[in-house]
Structures are given as C-alpha cells and as structure tokens.
C-alpha cells in the first residue's frame, strides 16, 4: 500500500466540497488528475469512498469513516511539523493556540484549512492552532480564542456570532418520516422514536441544547445509543438504530441510507460563537476572527 499525504488532502478537499470541480479549483489542479488520484486511493484501500453520479458526489459509509481518519492524520503531521519547528527555533516567541470546539461540523471541515493557510500566507510564524473537544481554558489566558456552540457563555468573555443555523432531524431513508412532504416534519413526530445522541460526559453543548429543545415541546427522548462524535451518530442512523437531531451544517456529510429533514419549529436553531477574554488580541488572533466572520457570513444558515 502506497498512500501519500497528498492523497489524503485531495480526498478531504473532495469530501468538503462534494464536487470534483470545486475541489480541484481549491487545490489549484485540474479535475482529471484529481479524479485519477481519488481512484488510486480507493484502489489502495480496497473500498469505495465516494458515490458519484451525474448530479452529485456523496460520501459512502466507508468514506465518512476514512474522512475522520484522514483529518486525524493530517492534524498529527501538522503538529509534528510545528513541534519540529519550535525545537529548531523555527517559531519565535510564544505559541498562540486557537481552540476550535466542534465535532465534524462545517466549522471543523472548512475553518482549519482557512486558518492554517491564512496564517502561513500572512507570515505569522508565532501562531499555531490546536483543535480540541473539551471546554477551553480561556478565562485563565492559556488560549486566545474559543469557538463554541450555545454553552452558557460566560459574561467575562467577549462573544461574536459566527453561525446561526436550523436544527434538522436525522433519519434513515426508509423511515416513515423520510417521506414527509417537502422533507419537513414537526419535532413532535420524534416523540416516540429511539434516539441516538451524544453521551453527556462528552461535554458537547449540543447535548443540553437538544434536550432543552425537546423538553420545551414535552418530549423526553428515549436515548438508546450514546456516543462521542457526530459522525458516529450519523453512522448509527444509517444502520437503522434510531433518529437524531443535529445542526443543519451536518447535512454536508452524505452517508448512504441517511436523510436530513427540516423542522417546522422556528426556534429549533443552533448558534456558534467565537469568544475571547476582554483584552486586546494579538494580530494573528484578530486576523483569524476576521477570516472566520467573513466565512460564516457567506455560509450563514437561516
């Protein structure tokens, strides 16, 4: 097996865009070589990662799992390069870590690429980015920025809205609800359904956010499976083991057997915020916020 990092980066770009033309443009290569390299990757793995037809590109279940692994590998390589640079004096001064709290949502897919390329392009050698999945220690000044869902947001931090998006129901394509007119249901239709969701100890704000929303409409979910990542939730729905609720940005993750349904309730929304301490930001952190706000304005869900 001879898989190179470029194969992973090519696959991630196609998985992000779900379009070979746009992915090729992002990678600054032509489309035929990109398609060829993805085919080589699939042959090396012995698995179909993408389902292609004349209308669209979708991730297969194997592709969704491999996307998660590919991101992890790229992240590890970037961290190793950063550590080597620090050891050799390549990064000067204090390392500033940007804390991105989300689990394979649109932010995690799009923003880290923007962050890394933008900070490098603007020659900020002291800036690094660190992606974690726990509550960030912003208050004690160890980290510059935090990106989070609707946790109770501390008053002593400054918050800016990045994303405002509806929640969607995640169901199996053969579930009776999947045939709802216009792909739109009431949240009350989920009242008697087995739920697949995050475990409370994972610490994601979506746990409390979704349970609060369900409680508002008199629903106590029957949670049959508790997991640590949204990708696992979607995979379990694909296997017919239950339904779930997730922010609409997860609709970009195309997995065989899964259908996303909009909700009739206007208050079924989720928000994402960038937060920092009430103090002047360094240049790299301020540049990052500017880039993220510009990106979120283009991708705002209403």
Automatic annotation (TrEMBL):
<dbReference type="GO" id="GO:0032993">
    <property type="term" value="C:protein-DNA complex"/>
</dbReference>
<keyword id="KW-0804">Transcription</keyword>
<dbReference type="GO" id="GO:0003677">
    <property type="term" value="F:DNA binding"/>
</dbReference>
<feature type="domain" description="HTH lysR-type">
    <location>
        <begin position="3"/>
        <end position="60"/>
    </location>
</feature>
<protein>
    <submittedName>
        <fullName>LysR family transcriptional regulator YnfL</fullName>
    </submittedName>
</protein>
<dbReference type="Pfam" id="PF00126">
    <property type="entry name" value="HTH_1"/>
</dbReference>
<dbReference type="InterPro" id="IPR000847">
    <property type="entry name" value="LysR_HTH_N"/>
</dbReference>
<dbReference type="GO" id="GO:0003700">
    <property type="term" value="F:DNA-binding transcription factor activity"/>
</dbReference>
<keyword id="KW-0238">DNA-binding</keyword>
<dbReference type="InterPro" id="IPR005119">
    <property type="entry name" value="LysR_subst-bd"/>
</dbReference>
<dbReference type="Pfam" id="PF03466">
    <property type="entry name" value="LysR_substrate"/>
</dbReference>
<keyword id="KW-0805">Transcription regulation</keyword>
<comment type="similarity">
    <text>Belongs to the LysR transcriptional regulatory family.</text>
</comment>
<dbReference type="InterPro" id="IPR036390">
    <property type="entry name" value="WH_DNA-bd_sf"/>
</dbReference>
<dbReference type="InterPro" id="IPR036388">
    <property type="entry name" value="WH-like_DNA-bd_sf"/>
</dbReference>
């Amino acid at each position: 097996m001879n898989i190179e990092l470029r194969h992973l980066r090519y696959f991630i770009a196609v998985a992000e865009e779900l379009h070979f033309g746009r992915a090729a443009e992002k990678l600054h290569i032509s489309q035929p070589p990109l398609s060829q390299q993805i085919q080589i990757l699939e042959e090396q793995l012995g698995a179909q990662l993408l389902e292609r037809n004349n209308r669209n590109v979708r991730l297969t279940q194997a592709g969704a799992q491999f996307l998660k692994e590919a991101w992890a590998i790229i992240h590890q390589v970037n961290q190793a390069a950063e550590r080597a640079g620090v050891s050799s004096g390549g990064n000067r001064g204090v390392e500033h870590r940007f804390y991105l709290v989300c689990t394979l949502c649109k932010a995690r897919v799009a923003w880290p690429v923007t962050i890394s390329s933008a900070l490098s392009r603007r020659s900020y050698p002291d800036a690094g980015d660190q992606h974690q999945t726990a509550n960030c220690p912003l208050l004690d000044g160890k980290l510059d920025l935090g990106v989070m869902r609707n946790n109770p947001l501390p008053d002593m931090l400054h918050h800016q809205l990045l994303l405002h998006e509806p929640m969607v129901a995640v169901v199996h394509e053969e579930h009776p609800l999947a045939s709802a007119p216009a792909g739109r249901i009431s949240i009350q239709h989920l009242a008697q359904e087995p739920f697949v969701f995050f475990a409370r100890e994972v610490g994601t704000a979506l746990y409390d956010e979704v349970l609060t929303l369900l409680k508002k409409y008199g629903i106590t979910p029957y949670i049959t499976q508790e997991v640590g990542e949204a990708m696992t939730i979607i995979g379990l729905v694909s296997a017919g083991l239950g339904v779930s609720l997730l922010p609409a940005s997860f609709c970009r993750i195309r997995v065989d057997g899964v259908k996303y349904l909009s909700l009739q309730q206007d208050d079924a929304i989720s928000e994402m915020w960038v937060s920092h301490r009430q103090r002047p930001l360094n240049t790299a952190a301020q540049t990052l916020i500017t880039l993220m706000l510009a990106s979120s304005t283009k991708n705002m869900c209403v």
